[in-house]
Amino acid sequence: MKVPRGDRTNSIIEPMLTDQWYVSMTKSNGPNGKSIAQEALDLVEQGDIKFYPNNWVNTYNQWLENIQDWCISRQLWWGHQIPAWYGENQEVFVAHSFEEATTLAKKEGYTGTLKRDDDVLDTWFSSALWAFTTLDWTPEYPQKSNLALDKYLPSSVLVTGFDIIFFWVARMVMMTKYVTNKIPFKHVYVHGLIRDQDGQKMSKSKGNVLDPIDLIDGISLEDLLKKRTQGLMNPKQAESIIKKTTKEFPKGISSFGTDALRFTFASLASPGRDIKFDLQRCDGYRNFCNKLWNASRFVLMNCDEEDNGFGKCVDGYLSFSQADRWIVSKLQHTLKNIERAYSEYRFDLVAQELYQFIWDEFCDWYLEFAKVQIQQGNESEKRATRRTLLSTLESILRLAHPVIPFITEEIWQIIIPLIRKDHESITLEKFPTLREEKIDEHSIEWVNTLKKLIDNVRSLRSEMNISPANKIPLALSGNKKELEEYLPYLISLAKLSDAKITADLPEKEAPVAIIGNYKVMLNIEIDKEAEAIRLKKEIEKAEIDLNKAGIKLNNKNFVSKAPKEIIKQEEERLNKFTEHKDKLVQQLKKLQS
């Protein structure tokens, strides 16, 4: 027989039978004549309490449908002491206080001394009372009114991990319903557990714990090693922890800031059991915060001490360009998606929407359009552009504030005086309101075409190895009136020396791109022989890339063992290489025909 021993003292551990206190889970003792477990099941089934994501309801139900009586007494030095007093012959008196226990004993004819039970309540039993005992609950409730309980019970949402759905969530539901006949909360948002980049649970013994403060402020390798090897239960692990940490963080951890870390956690909060924490994501979102800061500097530089169209009715209201109406429309679409994501507790989608709108639409596109309008527009158009820049940025700051509160407050305090005089803090401002009447589908379609025109011209330049620094002429064919509206943006953003609109493109051996009803061509002379040689080399290079990607996907071991996202990534690369090669082959055929 194997004798169990304690890992710290090596003492023999023997089982000892003792009296314990239990809560009955199956007796019909709930407020509605059902067991407290059945009451808790009914509340979720009826929709009084909802889980997000909903699949965690299955875990909740599984526990409660197979429940056993709950042992609530513990032999520990700390905790809430069991409210039971014993007489000299093991008479038991359960009461709220010693005085009440004495009164109960006298009623039953016992006048001897009383001794309180030495055991304490199970931690989870004490935790199960949290929803109402924190609101000044007394045993007289609900017969005796309580303002805090009446107002704040139930609360709106409980945020918790999936590993304590039964230990805490279910028990709070059971105890709150039993004691107050109310539910503790309306929604339960269940998040995953943060693990390291390899999917390992963070623990001190493994030496893979990341302190959020170190990610915010940064830490040197020396201090990180000291932190990870201090107070280990098994000092022998120090050597392997030092080796692993030195390899993973050779220069320590750089400072990412609070907002970048918050954005990282939001972006990782997808439905699932585990969240793999990747330090590179922090770096990417620090860049995102810098991008927002630099965009704000551009807006301030162009709008400070200027007439921005706020405070009075000006003709600028009538001069909003297609680009202005487009960014306002995209803002409304983004707000709509974010509102839906918040309602479903999809913080990863909130982060995704913010990132795409701020970086891709506002910074990469609208600011470039705004430069053209400020440089080439009349006073009315310039005023409308400045108004759109400021109003959109201010809305962006309020939209992003829950996720990145510090940088948004800092920028907001700088730009809000340009919009209005009375202001305190962005925290006190209302969240942006969706206004669907501001969505202009025509402007969205118009800008989408403009973006395609610019992207295609840039692609033609890239295919011809023309440096972005060199301005070149462009030929366009299509509806002249429509194309003329695009020209100012196209010339500036595609780095053109000039652009000519003709009924038909010139007869030249130059690459052509077709965008809907329009055709664009680099209006340059090329060396056919040199270009053919270049294209053949590019095709050979594309074939090498194709073969590499094909070998991976044809490898049965790789396909069976690799994660789905990696396989998807390789398939996307294969499609990209195939598309690129086909385009090069078509260009070569055209050149040689």
Give a description of the structure.
It is a single chain. The chain is elongated and about 115 Å long. The mean pLDDT is 87. The protein has helices spanning 36-45, 56-65, 98-107, 123-128, 130-133, 147-152, 165-180, 212-217, 221-229, 238-248, 258-268, 279-303, 322-343, 347-376, 379-400, 405-415, 441-463, 480-493, 528-554, 556-561, 564-592, and strands at residues 22-23, 50-52, 70-71, 73-74, 84-86, 92-94, 115-116, 120-121, 155-161, 185-191, 193-195, 274-276, 472-477, 496-502, 512-515, 518-522. Strand 15 and strand 16 (518-522) form a beta hairpin. It has five domains: 22-82 and 117-191, Rossmann fold, CATH 3.40.50; 195-255, no CATH class; 274-439, Isoleucyl-tRNA Synthetase, Domain 1; 440-526; 528-593, Helix Hairpins, CATH 1.10.287. Strands 14-13-16-15 form a four-stranded mixed beta sheet, with helices on one face. Helix 11 (258-268) packs across helix 12, helix 13 (322-343) packs antiparallel against helix 14 and helix 19 (528-554) runs antiparallel to helix 21. Helices cover 52% and strands 10% of the residues. By secondary structure, the protein is α/β, with parallel strands linked by helices.
From the 3D structure, determine the CATH topology of the largest domain. Isoleucyl-tRNA Synthetase, Domain 1
> How many domains, as an integer?
5
Distance between the termini: 89 Å
Total helices: the number is: 21
Using the CA coordinates, give the radius of gyration: 34 Å
Number of strands: 16
Largest sheet: 4 strands, mixed
Mean pLDDT: 87
Q: CATH top level of the largest domain? A: Mainly Alpha
